[in-house]
Ubiquinone biosynthesis O-methyltransferase, mitochondrial
Amino acid sequence: MSRTFGDRTMHVYSQASKNSQRNLLCSSRSIQRNNERHSHSTIDTVEVEVFSKHMSDWWNPDGKLALLHGFNALRVPLIRDGLVQCATEERKLQPLKNIKILDVGCGGGILSEALARLGATITGIDASEDLIKIADEHKNIDPKIAKCKPTYIHTTVEDHVNKFACCYNCVVASEVIEHVNNQDLFVKSCVRALVPGGKIFFTTPNRTRLSQLVVILLAERMLKMVPDGAHEYEKFVTPTELSFMLEKNNCHVESTYGIQYNPLTKKWSFSTYQHLMYAMQAQKLS
């Protein structure tokens, strides 16, 4: 009796293992096909247009981009602490002073300005000309960044890095990789922008049925918390896939954190649970 049970268990385990391998293979092939279709560009014009439509609402903290505004409370300390282990007394107010940061997919500058307030030298790039105009206009409003205003450029990371390879101490791609075509080229270009020893930070949804339910069906389509049409489930990237792309480009992944949002308190927090969203920090080795 026990042998029969054991045989059945082994059969189930073997079948589950085969299914897992098949799913991983299908996922890899899907990403590869997407990359091959867009081998020379990361731009998804449809998604660029989706976000450009909300340019007038970009700096409204209670508007369609409210989640991004609130997200700064989590991602800014993540980037700051990842770059500066301990600040001297003179650098406490501007701990990122003299650190060159490339904000890829900067949009209207929500994250760029927050990092500039910490003293960083910011270059923000985006594929949307409309959003770059919004960012350029808004940087003149806050007196706290009068001496360290971000520089904004309408371009893609693959084009930008042709002129500015090995130029930045830090690259940030926050809520961006899930919106681009050819994610391999995107990661490769982001890493090329880094100096050896530089840090790179990603935040993005995981590709799970839970993230599809929460991010697309609930937050986007039902509750209208994010712009409609902003996400495609097939473009979501798992931590394993992103780690592989980074390691393939000579980076060492230092940490991965789960991210969650509480709609009652309207606050973001880190979590050990990575099935919904996650943040990843890596360092370029050479």
Observations:
- The radius of gyration is 20 Å.
